[in-house]
Amino acid sequence: MYKYDEYDQEMVDTRVAEFRDQVRRRISGELTEDQFRPLRLQNGLYLQLHAYMLRVAVPYGTLNSAQMKVLGDIADKYDRGYGHFTTRQNIQYNWIKLEETPDLLAELAAVEMHAIQTSGNCIRNISSDQYAGAAADEIVDPRPYAELLRQWSSFHPEFLTLPRKFKIAVIASEKDRAAMKLHDIGIKMVRNDAGEIGAQFYVGGGMGRTPMIAPMIREFVPLDQLITYSEACLRVYNRYGRRDNKYKARIKILVHELGKDEYTRQVEEEFAHLLTLPIEPPLAELERIKTHFVEPAFDAGASDELDLSDPDFRLWVERNTHAHKQAGYVIATVSLKPVGGIPGDASADQIRLMAQLAKDYSFDELRVTHAQNIVFPHVRKADLYTLWQALDAAELGTANLDTVGDIIACPGLDYCSLANARSIPVAQKISQRFGSAEKQAELGELKLKISGCINACGHHHAGHIGILGVDRKGVENYQLLLGGSEGADTSLGQITGPGFDEDGIVNAVEKATNVYLSNKQGEERFLDTYRRIGMAPFKEAIYG
Amino acid sequence: MVEVQFRFRNDEAVNDPAVTVDSFAQQTNAAAVRIEPGDDARALLPHLERIALVEVNFPAWTDGRGYSSARVLREAGYTGELRAVGDIAPDMLGHLQRCGFDAFAPDKALNPADAEAAFGRWNNVYQATVVDGRQAIWAKRHPAA
């Protein structure tokens, strides 16, 4: 994976010094909270209901063991012993003290990590496919391009105060595992007819209160124009994105209001101009970055045999592993969704254990997924049983990937100052209701996502089943959505009708799954059945 | 009149009253113009030769349109004074400079020590903005390219 050189290290060290200075000015009173707020947000520090929350960047979701270990140590030292992995492949700590943040950041910088631009109205951490570099279906590893974009977007002087936050995802396979079309810019690496690799640009997707699927605005951007084209997309947005209304400030609104064609025309005009300036890194820089992403030294003779005589292990293998491009290896996903647990949470000990196991069994690498799980990308099949036993002993062996138990949920009203309703208790109740392995097996792939407010951090629009918490006259109320998807077949869920209380929503989810089970044909997933039979039968069962 | 607190030019300061972008094209004797956040800086491109001072107003420092305005003008070859006025946060001074600003007139005078730290903060930079004359990190990594 990518290793900092002296320049990269200097950049994060400088940022720590700058933030230390900003915190000092805040504590001395030189800066008011109003003045400090946008500055701390540029560095991932939120003031939440009970304490400060710090979001640490995990660029394109990739971590090494030493970094993971430090994340565990930080959970112990600066938080209450937990970390919360997020839907943007980052990690958050919920109990942070302002005066301690500079030291925390210095500890991160020592292992080439940071919290740069993990919040605020700027270009956020670049996300990617959690199986990058391991998946059998990718045309290239998308991460070198994400790293090139990470450097370009870090402290880009023109784009630090955009109309609103800006999220970029890069993928390189047909199967979209990063919800690419629901980003401000989604980039899909593709091969053209001449066999060259280039970038396909989708601009103006997003969730929030106006969910939109990004339209494609350019089929192929050559690799030696990638930064220039990105800069053109951003400049048009920075100049013309709405700033009169926070809720209409995302680029999706600009693209929608101008129309895809007019936005594209403006970008092309800006692009033509910017191409005349020497702003594009040479391809040699991309090649340099690529050398950090060479394949690990796989054992070419690794056996494809797997002893599945232990039924619990067998279930976990069926649910939580994915085909690797290298024979004799698999990609294994650790579910951070134990029955009744808090989605995405891991204790300091669990984080450190995963760090050690990655060192022992996955070439020192881990990934954070946007579904709030952890991936061991390169596991020899011969080591898989040992790995699973160690995980299972630490309550990390839950076999429920992509099932109804693998719930995405935002922190909700338990932590977040924006939330209208709690998400975690709803996730816990659903996870308990559908906790049995039989039930999960019966329901198959079923993506359930919960947001505690309209900002949609829990991706409720993209859930096969989505739940949106709202505030109805001071009472928490939950709306049910059906039919969303974040994959290559991205679609937005539709609201079934009036909302429910906490127990009511759990019952409504169960009724919806019963409709699926009684209408399912062949190998259909919940989503397939819903798309075939439509909303009506579900509505009838839920409200009838 | 707001004081210019920092200026990185050797020529004589221009203190003509700045006219609006809308009226500038008609006022053929005007040499100073003021860009508000919603103005299109490209409207000035046909007139760059007679402009000696462009003020770019930041009613709030968190409104970043002025950064693009500055680069647009510099990229088109504007060499006169480019002055950031309004709500200038000291933390942003280095970034403003990288977009081509060479004079700063904050509404409220900034703490000189904070400002000095901000101007000198970044030894190296990841991007080539071209207009700041700085070499990007990628260029230093590949000196022959």
Molecular structure report:
The complex is a heterodimer of chains A (544) and B (145). Chain A has 17 helices and 20 strands. With 544 residues, chain A is α+β, with helices and mostly antiparallel strands. Chain A has four domains: 104 residues, Sulfite Reductase Hemoprotein, domain 2; 158 residues, Sulfite Reductase Hemoprotein, domain 1 (2-Layer Sandwich); 83 residues, Alpha-Beta Plaits; 136 residues, Sulfite Reductase Hemoprotein, domain 1 (2-Layer Sandwich), CATH 3.30.413.10. In chain A, the strands form four sheets. A five-stranded antiparallel beta sheet of chain A has the order 1-2-5-4-13. The radius of gyration of chain A is 23 Å and the shape is globular. Chain A starts with 5 loop residues before the first helix and ends with a helix. Chain B has 145 residues and is of the alpha/beta class. Chain B has one domain: Rossmann fold. Chain B has a six-stranded mixed beta sheet with strand order 1-6-5-4-3-2. At the A-B interface, helix 1, helix 2, helix 6 and helix 9 of A face helix 2, helix 3 and helix 5 of B.
List the helices and strands and how they pair.
The complex is a heterodimer of chains A (544) and B (145).
Chain A lengths: L5 H23 L4 H9 L3 E3 L4 E5 L5 E3 H14 L3 E4 L5 E6 L4 H9 L17 E2 L14 H11 L14 E4 L13 E7 L5 E7 L12 E7 L3 H15 L10 H8 L1 H15 L8 H8 L20 H10 E3 L5 E6 L10 E3 H14 L3 E4 L5 E7 H13 L14 E2 L14 H10 L3 H7 L4 E4 L13 E8 L2 E8 L11 E2 L6 H18 L6 H8 L2 H8 L1
Parallel strand pairs in A: 6-7, 7-8, 16-17, 17-18
Antiparallel strand pairs in A: 1-2, 2-5, 3-14, 4-5, 4-13, 8-9, 9-10, 11-12, 12-15, 14-15, 18-19, 19-20
Helix pairs in contact in A: 1-2, 1-4, 3-11, 5-9, 6-8, 7-8, 11-12, 13-15, 15-16, 15-17
Chain B lengths: L5 E2 L11 E2 H4 L7 E4 L17 E6 L6 H11 L5 E6 L6 H6 L4 E4 L5 H8 L17 H5 L4
Q: Concise description?
A:
The complex is a heterodimer of chains A (544) and B (145). Chain A has 544 residues and is α+β, with helices and mostly antiparallel strands.
